[in-house]
Amino acid sequence: MMVLKCRFCMRDIQADDALIGELVKCPFCQSTIAVPDPFPVIGSEKNGYTIESILFSTLLFNMYQATSPPQSTCPSTRVLLQVPSFFFLKRTADFNLFSTAVINSGSMNIPGTPRLLEYSLNPGGIFFAYDFFESSNLENFARNTGPFPPLDALSIIKQCAGTLHNVWANYGIIHQNLSPNSILLDSARNILLMDLGISQTLRQDKKLLDSGFNIWDPHYMSPEFALSGEGFSPACDIYSLGMTLYFLLTGNTPNGNLSSENIPATAPPDPTNAIPPGFNDVISLYRKMVAPNPAERLSSWEELVGDVDIIFNNPLHSATAAAPPRPIATPLGQASVSPSAPTPANQQENDIIANFSKKGSKTEKNRHFQNLKKKNREKGFFEKNMGLVLTCFIVFVLAVPLIAFWMHKQKKKRENPRRNEYAQSASNVEKPSADIPKTKEKPTISPKVAELSPEELPPGGETDLKSDSTGTAPNSRKKTLTQKVLDVKRYLLEGKSKRN
User: Fold this and answer.
1) Which fold is adopted by the domain 42-341?
2) What is the pLDDT of residues 344-370, one digit of tens each?
């Protein structure tokens, strides 16, 4: 039994291992999803390669970072390991045609595209090993870091445009499935375009498409490609790249709240409220890239790269640029030039730049707090209330010993009834009233007792007297002062009579 997450309602569901590679319905939202391949354990072997980390998984491929075996002919020790999914292998009608497209894609030798080092087509051990790239796909990268600053986002867009221009100019290939999932990004903001040249091959596999296979994300597909499958020019990929720009600027999937059937007829979303003021030229470029009508859209990669360079050279953006963009891939026949903003020539330009910088920083802060609120809403109960949970735990730890001590004291009281009786009798003794004055008087002997002769004294001493001058009861355990005097007098009289 394995646990997977529904990509529509994001809830965890369980599926039997026998359903790996099959389509199932989510019990919560009733959406149709595919049961993915089980991820290998980090450090285990996959097709002879040692898995270092898991990058991502799709209906088509599982991507890993791995170490090649010692006996391998692979020229690199660390590689990107791409393994076709069970879902795809169970349904494809012509795997040879597909593998040929993948091998050709990895042999382009164009900056920004993966270089294929080693592959195997043996049943049960199919894989493709590429040059190592310390990266994550663009979607995961943006989900973790939040929206990109406008100029950083344009730097990534320019790299993608240069690579796609070179592929189109040399091989006549378009991507047709460009999205943040198919773009890898490393920590230095260098890009790597995956799955180039395989979309057209997959669309020719009718058996595969009829079985429910679909790797094309409708949120990034051009309207003409989504509605009629017509997308054989750079304009198709420029639209997808424009929607990727929206994702980078806002951190949200374009038209993410709409179903796939309603997206092609819906106008592209507007990112104006998500970026700092002063970047109207970025908004204008985005609108030209995602125009629903292909005739009104940017139609060539050279035009797109030129518009991006104009934005980079705008002096108003020099203060807000985090770092100059690094154009890894440039159009063929052009020199690689790193765009840089000119230094302001006078104080007026400095004031304008500082004004835009302040507004931009304030907007960035607001957007940062919005992202924090969004992440907080996605947290579970214990993550949200960790302080309350720790406080309750500390109170519990302190209260348990106190309660145990109190219960022990109660038990000892129940086991010692004499002590309880003594405490009760002591509490019942009447205390002298505060109104009675306390005076110290010397004890006096009753005259009647003093006049008694030895013969008249009772033999039992004080115990036979009914009462004395103080009125003490005769059976009292303690002798009164009068009784003690009587005993002494009797003792003296008895001694005198004996001497006589």
Assistant:
1) Transferase(Phosphotransferase); domain 1 (1.10.510)
2) 334 443 443 344 334 444 444 455 556
